[in-house]
Design a protein that fits this description.
heterodimer, A: 415 residues, mainly alpha, elongated, B: alpha/beta, four-stranded antiparallel β-sheet
Chain lengths: 415, 296
């Protein structure tokens, strides 16, 4: 136990004094701070130009309207001025003049009417996000209906009232609101994926470096392999957590400092509005998931003779993890997080950290199911950890050609 | 202090590496473990240090099964290597702490050894900035800093210049004088001969020869004489087939029995101008070649 403490301290110090580790963490913290302060900084710049209420009066681009019938033209112009606040709506004398103006780039777009319910839309480059025709259609339909109603004997006020009726509704979600939970679940799963993959690889490289530099010869005769393995893995887990806390902590802090500037941005608010219990689940699944993979990475690292072998050696583990990630991401994007596949995945120790966490966050899972999943995962971590230490003990002394799995298993049985 | 390996057997898969190895090393003495490459030296050392267990047999310390929690080992492996990118003081203290020392005691001891080996100026440097010989001295500190009862040195002199070799010799002699068990494994026979009171030669996974070096040499048949003389040719002509050329222009004379050596010595000194005449004692090199030469 004493040795374990020393190893943990030494390995953790290695991470903390690693310039790349510190540099990347600082970079992420600064990048996030820049993003979080962006609206405030932009607000400071824009503050003078855009004088609050006057914002509506800025009509920067010209929209032309032509109608053979002047009365319709005027009515449409008035309606469009209200419907397109960003545009300066002007009447045009002929369809050719309208077309020429748009072509020359003097106007952004133009509507040439044949009747109130039929027009040609002229525009230079049709943007993917051009909604002008949709807005215009809606405005014109309303106008047509109002005209028709007035023609049918209903007063203009009554017609306006009928047209402006709105339906009010409210939603009461009795389970989880997937829309709200989606973003932080997405971010958490992605963070879990990145950290486990990055730090797992680091554990493997760390072990293989000790082996190839032969520091292992002294280490293996100085410390117990179980302490070595657990010390390394827990140190890298702590380093990963410290990095996550630094990044997300600074993000939370910067968001709170600037929350008023982010205003009504629902996505941002939902990300930082994570319930505490979900955060604790996240922590449990993160730590256990990290352990189970880091142990495997460490064991594989110990069987590699050269650092170059690491990438091919860890491939099966990486593949397993990527498959788990893809399954979870697919279920999240379809919204069906309670599919049979996800249910199965949430009990398999190698996939449960991501699958079960996603289900807890985006669906309703009974406490018994969570307990079973965490229990299976916890027991597996201990089993995989001890087994990894055994592989480590045998693996680190095997130099030369890469040993086959069968040879290692045989050696473990004997040891 | 007394360290014993008794009937150690070990196989890796189908390959039998050690078959019935028994050794005894005493405190205050150096023990030489010899053998050709692949004879089982490193495997014996690893079993001794509990890196992996033997298939059968036992390791005893002062007559009782060894308690690895209480007996401290210092090990200089043949395959040298520590953390190249780490500060020397940090890694040396770490290794000493792993062997059970408190941090303050570890720092104190490491500082003592750094100055003892003339390495104090490198204390805060990274290991990979040092020359190979100096790196080896640093590695030696990992074997000594925690004041081990048993010190195992695998090829300690390889890569050291004569001055550093002398320094290492002095250090090893000090440790032996403190009553520690020092176990040498080396192919440089002159060093083994200089330090070791007892030796064991491993061959093909078994002990081919073991015992006090002095006794081993004495037990060789004393029926051979080494003769150096200006009249070597005349002597060779007179003794005929009993005579063979020896190192540096000398002769080696093999007698039918040891009892005749007095008579032959007298006869030669009376009749020829003799520079040197003595009973031939085999060097450790000769013994090694004889016992470790052929596979078993």
């Amino acid at each position: 136990m004493k040795q374990f403490g020393k190893i943990l301290k030494f390995e953790l110090k290695n991470y903390m004094s690693n310039k790349v580790f510190v540099g990347v963490t600082l970079f992420l913290v600064i990048a996030i701070a820049v993003v979080m302060f962006f609206p405030r900084v932009m607000g400071a710049f824009e503050g003078d130009d855009v004088g609050g209420d006057g914002a509506d009066d800025v009509r920067s681009s010209v929209m032309l309207v032509y109608s053979p019938d002047t009365e319709t033209g005027e009515a449409v112009k008035t309606a469009f001025l209200a419907a397109f606040p960003g545009h300066d709506v002007r009447l045009c004398e002929s369809e050719e003049a309208l077309r020429g103006s748009v072509e020359a780039g003097e106007s952004e777009c133009g509507f040439a009417f044949e009747s109130l319910v039929s027009y040609t839309y002229y525009v230079g480059n049709l943007s993917m996000y051009d909604t002008n025709t949709a807005v215009a259609d809606s405005v014109l339909t309303d106008m047509y209906r109002t005209v028709a109603m007035v023609g049918g004997g209903i007063s203009a006020e009554q017609a306006a009232e009928i047209m402006s009726v709105t339906v009010s509704h409210s939603t009461q979600s009795l389970g989880k609101d997937q829309m709200q939970n989606f973003f932080y679940t997405y971010i958490m799963i992605f963070a879990l994926y990145m950290v486990i993959l990055l730090y797992g690889q680091m554990v493997a490289t760390n072990v293989a470096t000790e082996k190839s530099s032969r520091a292992m010869e002294v280490l293996i005769t100085s410390a117990d392999p179980v302490s070595m393995m657990f010390g390394k893995v827990i140190a890298s887990c702590l380093a990963g957590l410290i990095q996550l806390v630094a990044v997300f902590g600074s993000a939370l802090l910067c968001f709170n400092l600037n929350s008023s500037y982010w205003g009504e941005d629902g996505i941002m608010a939902s990300i930082f509005d994570m319930p505490v219990d979900l955060f604790l689940y996240m922590l449990v699944f993160f730590i256990l998931g990290f352990f189970i993979y880091a142990f495997m990475f460490g064991a594989v690292g110990s069987t590699a003779s050269k650092l170059e072998d690491i990438n091919t050696s860890v491939m099966p583990i990486t593949l397993l993890f990527v498959i788990a990630f893809v399954v979870v991401m697919m279920s999240m994007s379809t919204g069906d997080v309670d599919s049979i596949l996800m249910k199965v995945c949430s009990y398999i120790p190698f996939t449960s950290p991501m699958a079960m966490f996603t289900r807890i966050a985006m669906s309703t899972v009974s406490p018994v199911e969570i307990a079973i999943s965490v229990g299976v995962l916890g027991v597996s971590v201990i089993f995989v950890g001890v087994f990894a230490a055994k592989i480590y003990r045998v693996g680190v002394l095997l130099y030369g050609t890469k040993p086959r799995l069968g040879d290692i298993l045989k050696a473990i049985r004997k040891a | 202090m007394r360290l014993e390996l008794r009937n150690i057997e070990k196989s890796f898969g189908e390959k039998r590496v050690l078959s019935g190895v028994s050794l005894t090393a005493e405190g205050g003495k150096a023990f030489g473990l010899l053998g050709r490459n692949g004879a089982g030296k490193t495997t014996s050392i690893r079993i001794l240090m509990n890196v992996f267990p033997a298939d059968s047999g036992e390791v005893l310390f002062d007559g009782a099964p060894i308690d690895y929690k209480r007996v401290r080992f210092g090990y200089l492996p043949e395959e040298r290597g520590l953390y190249p990118k780490k500060k020397i003081i940090d890694q040396l203290v770490y290794f000493a702490e792993l062997k059970g020392m408190s941090r303050s005691a570890a720092v104190k001891s490491v500082d003592y050894w750094l100055s003892r080996l003339g390495m104090a100026e490198y204390r805060g440097k990274r290991l990979d900035t040092l020359s190979k010989g100096n790196q080896q001295k640093i590695q030696l500190i990992t074997a000594l800093a925690h004041d081990p009862q048993i010190i195992i040195l695998d090829e300690p002199f390889s890569g050291l210049d004569p001055v550093n070799a002398m320094l290492l010799k002095d250090v090893v002699k000090e440790e032996i004088a403190k009553g520690k068990i020092v176990l040498f494994s080396s192919h440089q026979m002159n060093y083994i001969e200089e330090f070791c009171d007892s030796i064991a030669i491993l061959n093909g996974g078994g002990v081919a020869l073991a015992g006090e070096l002095h006794d081993i040499k004495r037990n060789y048949p004393r029926n051979r004489l080494v003769v150096r003389s200006e009249s070597a040719e005349a002597i060779a002509a007179r003794l005929g087939e009993a005579c063979a050329p020896f190192e540096d222009g000398g002769l080696i004379v093999t007698l039918p029995s040891p009892e005749e050596k007095g008579r032959v010595m007298r006869e030669l000194t009376e009749n020829y101008d003799i520079d040197e005449i003595k009973v031939f004692e085999p060097s450790l090199n000769d013994i090694f070649v004889e016992y470790a030469g052929g596979g078993m």
